[in-house]
Amino acid sequence: MSRRRGKAVEEEKADIDLTPMLDVVFIMLIFFIVTASFVKEKALDVNVPDPNLADQSEPDPDKQNILLMVSANDEITMADGSRIDSRAVRARIAQMYAENPQAMVIVRAHNKSSADTYVQIADAAKEVSLGIQVSLIPYED
């Protein structure tokens, strides 16, 4: 009988205690959480009008805004239909802003156009005047 009891005692001692390993894992987890640096993503501040609150009244002819349209392949077009190069945007905005200093720049950009084109237009408008407002209106075909 003593042999059987001896084997039972030996089998109990063969169990591995996982508590120290879990302690080490939790300490490592806490270390990585505390030392991790979180990346703050940069974003653009864009004025997008609320489609539910869209004003359906006729625009004031004395207060015409500067409308630029950006197609899906990043071609910039003025409201009159003339296509302009991205390098000429600043000059055209300056010309139209001189005629009407209360005007806002409205960029009507296709959803598939790049954000870089909008940033170029917004930068060109801010070069003309720091007080000018630039709004983005996305559209789809």
End-to-end separation in angstroms reads 89 Å
Percent strand equals 15-25%
Average pLDDT: 82
| Structural class computed from helices and strand pairing | alpha/beta
- Shape type: rod-shaped
Major beta-sheet overview: 5 strands, mixed
Q: How many DSSP helices? A: 4
User: Largest beta sheet: what is the strand line-up?
Assistant: 3-2-1-4-5
Radius of gyration: 32 Å
Number of strands: 5
- The ordered H/E elements are HHEEEHEHE
Please estimate the helix content: 25-40%
User: Which stretches are low in confidence, meaning pLDDT under 50 for 5 or more residues running?
Assistant: none
Polypeptide structure, described:
The protein is of the alpha/beta class and 141 residues long. The protein contains four helices and five strands, in the order ααβββαβαβ. It has helices at 2-13, 19-35, 89-99, 115-128, and strands at residues 66-70, 76-78, 83-84, 105-110, 134-139. It has a five-stranded mixed β-sheet with strand order 3-2-1-4-5, with helices on one face. Helix 3 (89-99) crosses helix 4. The longest helix is centred in the N-terminal third of the chain and has 17 residues, at 19-35. The model has no long low-confidence stretch (mean pLDDT 82).
